[in-house]
Design a protein that fits this description.
With 750 residues, the chain is of the alpha/beta class. The chain has 4 domains: 23-143, Chitobiase, domain 2; 149-158 and 175-207 and 232-458, Glycosidases (TIM Barrel); 524-597, Immunoglobulin-like (Sandwich); 605-749, Jelly Rolls (Sandwich). Helix 4 (163-175) packs parallel to helix 6. The structure holds acetamide (ACM) and zinc ion (ZN).
């Protein structure tokens, strides 16, 4: 008690105690707010959550129409309500229209917002905080989004998803403060919007005989009549669209329609072949730009789109148009001559600029995929950057707005886990951690650029997504990572915190009747090579939390009593790491098996044969460049992780100089095959050895079997293992079968 003799000490002790009570708590919230001050105190939620709100009538009606979908039952009451919502443009915190201030104290909840949207987002936060038990944390949150555009894109052409599916997704993504639906309504696999005057779009070009897109080849990708037996497809009527729009509006989501042009228009040309360069159906996916009727068609379609959709933005596509048919078309060539266009890129730009002018004349603006930059950007266009980030950055440099949706972070149709455990997907591997790691507007770009970056979007292309359940599996939880990317300031985003919160979140999503991917049940590894100490440091992680990682280094299957991973460890020679997740004593998923070799060729000289060098046209495929195959770093599941070196159409033909004659017994390299993006195993690999660099002896020819060649996804070592042999030079020659891409991460010599 001596401590308290001095009144100052007493104050000090009280402050300590207070601090102990107010240990910061991590809120169970996504996206994480910009600012929060949370205590460990809680307040009980009343059985009936009463609320008052000062919204004017039409917005009040909107809120009341939404509330039946709100997870927390609420009742309007003017008598001492538990939740008070004050909406006023005059309020100074928050500062932006979508922001809010939420105070939870023993007296109840006070919400301040500048607009109905801010109040809506405050309610989403409140609902998240109310989920874990009947208590709310005592907290003050001041929150607003980093970016105004936070989007979900849905492709309903490749597979048609009905309005109920679309509404179901809107209901959930709105709770994560997503505010845009980019509705990809038209594409070469089906037109999905009823257009007056063009009945063939929806009675014919919306239907095919094969449900699965990959089976449609059996029908030469031809459409069928709506009434034909076995017709698969669908479209939205005006009433459907209005229903979705109203549903979105009540959730503060703007729906941006996309009408694809001039490419990805096979379905238009099947229905109206006179709009193609040849006048025949099924001859191209691009409309004829030399034909005035093409413009009449799109203007008519856009009139209807503008009549139905209140969105300021209309997306006009613009991606992946082949210019081949325009080159051979007299009408297109005449157009180029008349308009002084020097090439077919400028012809495409002519069309986009003309369509933009039309849309601008109706008081709207266009968004186009980043190809619209290629032949000159239309004056007022906003660019959606998908091929990578360069398109968006170039647009911003020119003073145009950009929306970032780079394929290697934001494409939610790509694999999110080991392809061997997943349904067929688009080729590359984009686990949630990669999606979360994306920063759409890094400080390094400077504010002159970043001020034009409107935000970020997750794209759900449906070529490999045949069912609604599968769509949800691909969307969640990665879209939630992007919701946080779009909302939370970069300085407040922490992968470890997100990992804890998303592990909680997936159970809530599932309980609501969705089908999320429940996060990977596989251990992930990372390596760093310490060349000075001749060792590789291995670290292990997982998407799951909390979880144990157990491992062995001799190739045996880990059990519940195997070594528990605690921190990175060093490998000085060779191990076969086998690591698995354990939930207590129960093993999950499948084991990670990873050879790690501090091998004899690390850091040695490699020379590529003249026609045996790696692909130069994409930075990420260079896989570490000239030293990449001998750097000790092994690739993961994506050929885009910077560790895999690509060869196309060349063979991989390289000779390694070990510096001196050395005893070797194993020369292998790992190759991957992922069929959807045309990545294949080699047809065969030859390993040669030489003492003098002139006379080489063939050590082995390792042939790809027919069974292996037929697999959708396979990783396999090719090379030679034999009795110790003296060599200074090793020639590794992987011979292409398909002349597409070979990918290899390391040539291991032991
Ligand atoms: C796209 O993925 N073709 C925009
Ligand atoms: Zn033409």
């Amino acid at each position: 008690m001596r401590l308290f003799k001095n009144p100052l000490n007493l104050i000090f002790a009280a402050a300590l105690l207070l601090a102990a009570c107010e240990t910061p708590q991590e809120l169970s919230m996504i996206p994480y707010p910009q600012f929060e001050k949370t205590t460990s105190k809680t307040v009980n939620l009343p059985a009936t959550v009463t609320f008052s709100v000062n919204l004017p009538q039409p917005e009040m009606d909107d809120l009341l129409a939404y509330l039946p979908s709100y997870p927390l039952p609420m009742e309007l009451s003017d008598k001492n309500p538990f939740v008070t919502i004050e909406v006023s443009e005059q309020t100074d915190t928050p500062s932006s229209a979508e922001g809010y201030k939420l105070e939870i104290s023993k007296r109840g909840v006070n919400i301040k917002a500048k607009s109905a949207t801010g109040a809506f987002y405050a309610l989403q936060t409140l609902a998240q905080l109310a989920r874990n038990g009947k208590k709310l944390p005592v907290t003050v949150i001041e929150d607003e989004p980093r970016f105004p555009y936070r989007g979900l894109h849905l492709d309903v052409s490749r597979h048609f998803f009905d309005k109920e599916h679309v509404k179901k997704q809107l209901d959930l993504v709105a709770t994560y403060k997503i505010n845009r639906l980019h509705w990809h309504l038209t594409d070469g696999a089906g037109w999905r919007l009823e257009i007056p005057g063009y009945p063939r779009l929806t009675e014919f070009a919306a239907w095919r005989k094969a449900a699965n897109l990959q089976d449609w080849g059996k029908y030469d990708h031809h459409y069928c009549e709506k009434d034909e037996e076995g017709a698969y497809g669908g479209y939205y009527t005006e009433a459907d669209v209005r229903e979705v729009l109203e549903y979105a509006r009540l959730r503060h989501i703007t729906v941006i329609p996309e009408i694809e042009m001039p490419g990805h228009s096979d379905e238009v040309l099947a229905a109206y072949p006179q709009l193609s360069c040849t006048g025949e159906p099924y001859t191209s996916g691009e409309v004829c730009i030399g034909n005035e009727e093409t413009f009449k068609f799109f203007e008519d379609v856009l009139n209807e789109v503008i009549r139905l959709f209140p969105s300021h933005y209309i997306h006009i596509g613009g991606d992946e148009a082949s210019r081949r048919h325009w080159k051979a078309c007299p009408k297109c060539q005449k157009r180029m001559k008349d308009e002084g266009l020097k090439d077919e890129s400028e012809l495409q730009s002519y069309m986009i600029a003309r369509i933009e002018k039309y849309i601008n004349s109706k008081g709207r603006d266009i968004i186009g995929w980043d190809e619209i930059l290629d032949g000159g950007l239309a004056p007022n266009a906003t660019v959606m950057s998908w091929r990578d980030t360069e398109g968006g950055i170039s647009a911003a440099q020119m003073g145009h707005y950009a929306i970032m949706t780079p394929g290697s972070y934001c494409y939610l149709d790509h694999y999110q886990d080991d392809p061997e455990t997943q349904p067929l997907a688009f080729g590359s591997y984009i686990p949630i951690g990669r999606t979360y790691s994306y920063d759409p507007a890094p400080d390094s770009l400077g504010t002159d650029i970043t001020k034009y970056i409107l935000g970020v979007q997750g794209n759900v292309w449906a070529e490999y997504i045949p069912t609604k359940e599968h769509a949800e599996y691909m969307i969640y939880p990665r879209i939630i990572a992007l919701a946080e990317v779009g909302w939370t300031p970069q300085s407040k985003r922490q992968p470890e915190s997100f990992k804890r919160r998303i592990n909680n979140e997936i159970h809530h999503i599932k309980a609501k009747g969705y089908n999320p991917f429940m996060l990977s049940e596989q251990v992930k590894s990372n390596q760093t090579v310490d060349y000075a100490k001749k060792r590789i440091m291995l670290s292990l992680t997982s998407e799951k939390y909390p979880i144990d990682i157990r491992y062995t280094t001799d190739g045996s299957e880990p059990t519940a009593s195997s070594k528990l991973y605690k921190k990175p460890f060093a490998v000085k020679d060779s191990i076969l790491l086998t690591a698995r997740l354990f939930d207590g004593k129960a093993p999950l998923g499948k084991s990670l098996r990873l050879r790690t070799d501090y091998h004899k060729a690390i850091g040695k000289q490699i020379t590529y044969a003249k026609d045996g060098g790696y692909y130069q046209n994409k930075e990420v495929y260079k896989g570490g460049g000239d030293t990449g195959l001998l750097d000790g770093l092994r690739g993961g599941m994506s050929y885009m992780d910077g560790r895999w070196q690509g060869f196309c159409p060349n063979d991989l033909d390289a000779t390694i100089d070990l510096g001196e004659v050395t005893s070797i017994h194993r020369v292998v390299a790992n190759f991957m095959q992922v069929r959807t993006p045309q990545v294949f195993l080699p047809a065969k690999v030859e390993v040669w050895a030489s003492v003098d660099g002139k006379n080489f002896t063939l050590l082995n020819t390792d042939i790809c079997s027919e069974e292996e060649a037929g697999k959708d996804v396979i990783f396999r070592d090719f090379g030679w293992i034999g009795s110790p042999t003296q060599a200074r030079y090793v020639r590794f020659h992987a011979i292409q079968g398909k002349k597409q891409f070979l990918f290899v991460d390391e040539i291991v010599i032991q």
